[in-house]
Amino acid sequence: MYEPMAPLLSELADRMTPEPNGREGDGETRPVLVLKEPAIPEMADQPTMSSRRVFLARASTLSLAIPGFGAALAACSPGGTASGDSSSAKAAGSAAQGASGAQRDSLLHDNANSRLDTAVARSEHGTSSIAPGMSVSADNVPFRRYDPTLPPLATERSLELQWRAMEVPVRIRPDTVVAAWTFEGNLPGPIVHCRAGDTIDFTLTNEGVVPHSMDFHAAQVDPKVAFRSVMKGQSVSFTFKPRWAGAFMYHCGTAPVLMHIGSGMFGALVVSPREPLPPAREFVLVQNEFYLADAVNGIRPFDYTKMLTTLPDYLAFNGRPNQYVSEPIRVRVGDRVRFWVVNCGPTHPCAYHVVGEQFDTMYLGAPPGTPIRGVQTWDVPAGGGMCFELVCDIPGEFPFVNHGFGHAQKGAIGFLVVEA
Amino acid sequence: MYEPMAPLLSELADRMTPEPNGREGDGETRPVLVLKEPAIPEMADQPTMSSRRVFLARASTLSLAIPGFGAALAACSPGGTASGDSSSAKAAGSAAQGASGAQRDSLLHDNANSRLDTAVARSEHGTSSIAPGMSVSADNVPFRRYDPTLPPLATERSLELQWRAMEVPVRIRPDTVVAAWTFEGNLPGPIVHCRAGDTIDFTLTNEGVVPHSMDFHAAQVDPKVAFRSVMKGQSVSFTFKPRWAGAFMYHCGTAPVLMHIGSGMFGALVVSPREPLPPAREFVLVQNEFYLADAVNGIRPFDYTKMLTTLPDYLAFNGRPNQYVSEPIRVRVGDRVRFWVVNCGPTHPCAYHVVGEQFDTMYLGAPPGTPIRGVQTWDVPAGGGMCFELVCDIPGEFPFVNHGFGHAQKGAIGFLVVEA
Amino acid sequence: MYEPMAPLLSELADRMTPEPNGREGDGETRPVLVLKEPAIPEMADQPTMSSRRVFLARASTLSLAIPGFGAALAACSPGGTASGDSSSAKAAGSAAQGASGAQRDSLLHDNANSRLDTAVARSEHGTSSIAPGMSVSADNVPFRRYDPTLPPLATERSLELQWRAMEVPVRIRPDTVVAAWTFEGNLPGPIVHCRAGDTIDFTLTNEGVVPHSMDFHAAQVDPKVAFRSVMKGQSVSFTFKPRWAGAFMYHCGTAPVLMHIGSGMFGALVVSPREPLPPAREFVLVQNEFYLADAVNGIRPFDYTKMLTTLPDYLAFNGRPNQYVSEPIRVRVGDRVRFWVVNCGPTHPCAYHVVGEQFDTMYLGAPPGTPIRGVQTWDVPAGGGMCFELVCDIPGEFPFVNHGFGHAQKGAIGFLVVEA
Predict the structure, then answer these.
(1) Which run of H or E residues covers position A93?
(2) For residue A309, which of A119, A89, A53 has the smallest C-alpha distance?
(3) Which residues of C touch B56 (CB under 8 A)?
(4) How many angstroms separate the CA of residue B387 from the nearest CA in chain A?
(5) Which residue of A has its CA nearest to B28?
(6) Which are the contacts of A42, defined by CB distance < 8 A and separation ≥ 6?
(7) Residue A276: how many other CB atoms lie within 10 Å
(8) Structure confidence at residue B137 (pLDDT)
């Protein structure tokens, strides 16, 4: 009695073929895994117009483009989560790995994740992993506060950025290390600051294993060329001149984009207007959501299936849940404070608010255009950025939050301390 | 045997087993289905003011107003999903089908759907179905790209629209046919284009089985009269003059509204300002979410219970997930492109963004009012519409997306190709 | 073995004592419970900077600060929900109840709620309850429509508000009573109306059991001092002068904020500009989401775990789902109607829309600043407020809704009746 459409997880167990690395057994020791170079026939060095488009279409339609990769790492963990903790989880795992393409296709076509099936949501497929050559001892990964200060403008009118795409562990909480995909080894990537009209020469070199790319929202370029994916060891370069001021997101645009944004490849490029805004203490807050799988060797991979549920585990400003609660942002009475808030999502709006204050100025368009006055809270859309200003007339401790508290309570809270 | 990298759809097709009619299973053939006429006692032909309000109140409170209808279809499927796969599913099923109104009321009062219970979320109650007189062979339903081009304005200052509400199958993906409730047989309904101040004479004739109606957001009318529901074979007519320019949603407003919007009865009315905006290539993108039940005879009904979970299976611009990836929207270098984006939801905001570009103009109020400049991404609210403009200075392939990527990855991605 | 109030999970292991009412056993009858005064060492009357911040950090990181309280009430119910209804529920329950602090910490660190596990989502931990001294007969709680009329301005330029935080049952639907945490015994709290620049002298006295506080979004004050939590029997006072006009949220800011907003402690302060806006019929609509546990003695507690899932049971304008469907808001033809819409969330945007009408004016900044014209629908962010105006040219019955219909259908629908 088989379902004409979506196979039921409970049925898949029967149809499974044994797994290549002997994951099925229960007390088996699993050898350390050496990943083979992935075979990605469609990702040529210089994909043609159609190939990139078709690839993206396929990836997004399938809702998965990095299926077994993280699972492979997961398999390294003896007695780890790789063995499903329920029969249905095991079924899901084996099915997706061992099934024929048609079966997997069918599984994913149905987007089973949206069915609220615990087993599927816990599936270890489509998870991030760190580059296999790296040491994976979570203990050696320190917790570091992310500095929210907007870097000063360079005196030159051009910036040269040579960045690496790296798959590395990042400690996002004192007790949590994640298998992050990053720009320059951190999550978010570096804060970039320039003026409208400046020239940015950018090069990305992929030191990871899966393909990566760079999409600057502030760039006006042909994405097919400039934002193309590069394989391990390859580089891509492009030049652009941001036209508009604003708080712009950047992110890896390799398909599935959700997986690459969701696994840590995002950050902020702040473009100041040609004529300076009023003097202020300027900070950058990049909000993101975390969707994590169970830890493998002490490191929690990002979980693509969970990303598709849109129900996150954590949120954070600048990559560490609540980091600015214990180590606040500090300014002085009389300071004007300018927050460049970039919501990297991947999915939910960020209702930005400062407790005990209101924003005297918020720019709807590119600053200094279309300012509005007297704002308590404003939704920054996923993939968008906004500029919020307030004057710190009085001393105190002012929490800044995503006022969508079902999200904020998972880590999107910080403190602005105004000292006398 | 796992996939090292994204399986390509073209590769998967080869490996797929044919499925169209016999659907593999147990070898059962399923007879063509003849639905019985539904009994909907509370929908009088011409509901009075109070009756309509009370009906709407009940429907929204009960979270269900089309109780056994879809269930009847589901129940025709031998060995199908109608038999609950858990005791609670069975209990829910029996209650909703066999229970008295009071019992049903009690069941739905608790809004069990929000409890994340798989069994409940899979319940086949409250699903759409196609009109019973129709042939229901999914194989005969072709896949057709939806033309996003804004139709030209008529020279006359009045439009006469005679539309039919129809319950028909629509192929939204090469492998997916849905039991759609539609205006004029398509999902979205037809794009309408007029000027502020034009006169629109509208008539809706219900050729479906369940009651339907029409709610134009651009109309200023008494909804009790103009937007009233009509039964099979009946018509409703009204006249209105859109006052403001903008990208306006229209939809069936019959309770429960969520079910009628969610099942395909929505579309866009674009009202151009009296004085023309700058010349541009103009396109309409209607975003919607799909919440689907398992297929019955090859056709997937819309699932009201799943709609209430707000966790969609697919999203799409103009009704077909990712259709503009394989068949992009094409313009030329130098063109100004104007997107009229209508988010029909039913639930989530659409964070509209074009990769590799920024919008030089976005109108917050009715165009040409309150333009803002230099926008990367803006949230179009569910039930709202916005107008986005950019100038295509350079050639290339520019994805347009809902940058809420947990949603976009389910189909809200397309391509704008700018040819030299 | 429960904590009457135990915000610091790290302390739980030390303080756990056997439970007064014998909840541990399985078939035991449970007497009516008398709660002991909570021991909250870290919530001093005047918390120091660091103590408050650390408290908030812990609470939000742990995602739970009121663990056993509601569970205690639940325990009053013989054969109630305290005994898990599935093996996994029981497992989850036992873990959280019987585990050491470290284990509980670990359980909650993982934010298991986001895994869509029914058992976890149904956990009875972190639920609201009414003050133990109160009579808890749900039958005696009447259903009362919440008057949406904006109160007139006082002639004086100062307001003195002496409010009580109270944990009381509130009937939100004819068949549903909730264990609400309130300001002044209602949900939402009282509507406050003043002018920009007026002086508000505010005192909150806590007549409940758990700590409470007051956060006015319209106030510019040091939250550490003015918005501090007070214990049972204590008071906090502060004075502020709203600087900007607008529709401002107020709410209890005690950690976890999600729990206190989510359990009913929210409302609207409308600040009119110094120079009056055009004459209008003015109404206040406060939207909120309900996340409820199963009833105990006929009263449904608010469920913190469910709040974290962000999948609500009900929504409402002014605290009663669909109350303005049966008892509409009434105006006359020719009236200008001004809606001050405050979205108290806790989580989702509210896509405000009036069926059959458009807003001729909506203020993006503090009214009368930055008006926009011709709006069909606008997202009010969680924790934000907006001002919408329309002129009622024609008679009729106009539904006002949250056009995010997956939410609206759960109760965010009302009627504006325009009488000739």
Answers:
(1) helix A87-98
(2) A119
(3) 325, 399, 413
(4) 14
(5) A1
(6) A51, A54, A55, B6, B8
(7) 11
(8) 82
Question: Which of C381, C340, C338 lies closest to C360, judged by CA?
Answer: C338
Question: What is the percent of chain C where pLDDT is above 70?
Answer: 69
Question: What pLDDT score was predicted for residue B126?
Answer: 86
Mean of the per-residue pLDDT values for chain A? 77
B232-262: per-residue pLDDT in tens? 999 999 999 999 999 999 999 999 999 999 9
CB contact under 8 A, A355 and C253: yes
Binding partners of A (≥3 Cβ pairs within 8 A): B, C
Give per-residue pLDDT as tens, C264-312: 999 999 999 999 999 999 999 999 999 999 999 999 999 999 999 999 9
Amino acid sitting at position A199: T
Residue A372, SS3 per DSSP: strand
At C217, list the tokens. Answer: 């979004």
User: Which of B122, B175, B417 shows the shortest C-beta gap to A115?
Assistant: B122
Here the ipTM equals 0.77
Q: B136-170 pLDDT, tens per residue?
A: 688 999 999 999 999 999 999 999 999 999 999 99
Say which residue the tokens 């709203």 belong to: C242
Element (H, E) at B338: strand B336-343
pTM (predicted TM-score): 0.78
Give the residue from B105, B213, B217 with the most C CB atoms within 10 Å of its CB, the best one to mutate.
B217
Instruction: Looking at the complex, report in whole angstroms how far the Cα of residue B256 sits from the nearest Cα belonging to chain C.
Output: 7
- Characterise B24 by phi-psi region: left (phi > 0), alpha (psi -120 to 50), beta (else): left
Candidates C117, C118, C397; nearest CB to B223: C397
- What element of type H or E holds B74? helix B67-75
Strands in A215-216's sheet, in edge-to-edge order, are A192-195, A266-272, A246-251, A215-216
Q: Which residues of A touch C274 (CB under 8 A)?
A: none
Residues A7 and A50 sit within 8 Å (Cβ to Cβ) = no
The size of the A-C interface in CB pairs under 8 A is 189
SS3 A43: coil
3-class DSSP string for chain C: CCCCCCCCHHHHHHHCCCCCCCCCCCCCCCCCCCCCCCCCCCCCCCCCHHHHHHHHHHHHHHCCCCHHHHHHHHCCCCCCCCCCCCHHHHHHHHHHHHCCHHHHHHHHHCCHHHHCCHHHHCCCCCECCCCCCCCCCHHHCCECCCCCECCCCCCCCEEEEEEEEEEEEEEEECCEEEEEEEECCECCCCCEEEECCCEEEEEEEECCCCCECCEECCCCCCHHHHCCCECCCCEEEEEECCCCCEEEEEECCCCCHHHHHHCCCEEEEEEECCCCCCCCEEEEEEEEEECECCCECCEEEEEHHHHHHCCCCEEEECCECCHHHHCCEEEECCCEEEEEEEECCCCCCEEEEECCCCECEEECCCCCCCEECCECEEEECCCEEEEEEEECCCCEEEEEEECCHHHHCCCCEEEEEEEC
Residue linked to tokens 């034009």: B198
B174 Rama sector, left if φ>0, alpha if ψ -120 to 50, beta otherwise: alpha
| Among candidate residues C140, C145, C109, C98, the one with its CA nearest the CA of residue C1 | C98
For residue C373, pLDDT over 50 is answered with yes
Question: Pseudo-torsion of CA C256, C258, C261, C262, nearest 10°?
Answer: -120
**Phi, psi at A305, each rounded to 5°:** -60, -40
Name the token pair of A316: 């954070």
Q: Distance (Å, rounded) from C-alpha C112 to C-alpha C103?
A: 13
The CA-atom distances, in angstroms, between C339 and each of C174, C279, C284 are 26, 13, 6
| Whether residue A105 has pLDDT greater than 60 | no
Q: What are phi and psi of C41, to 5 degrees?
A: -55, -35
Task: Classify A388 as helix, strand or coil.
Answer: strand
Compute and round to an integer the Cα radius of gyration of chain C: 22
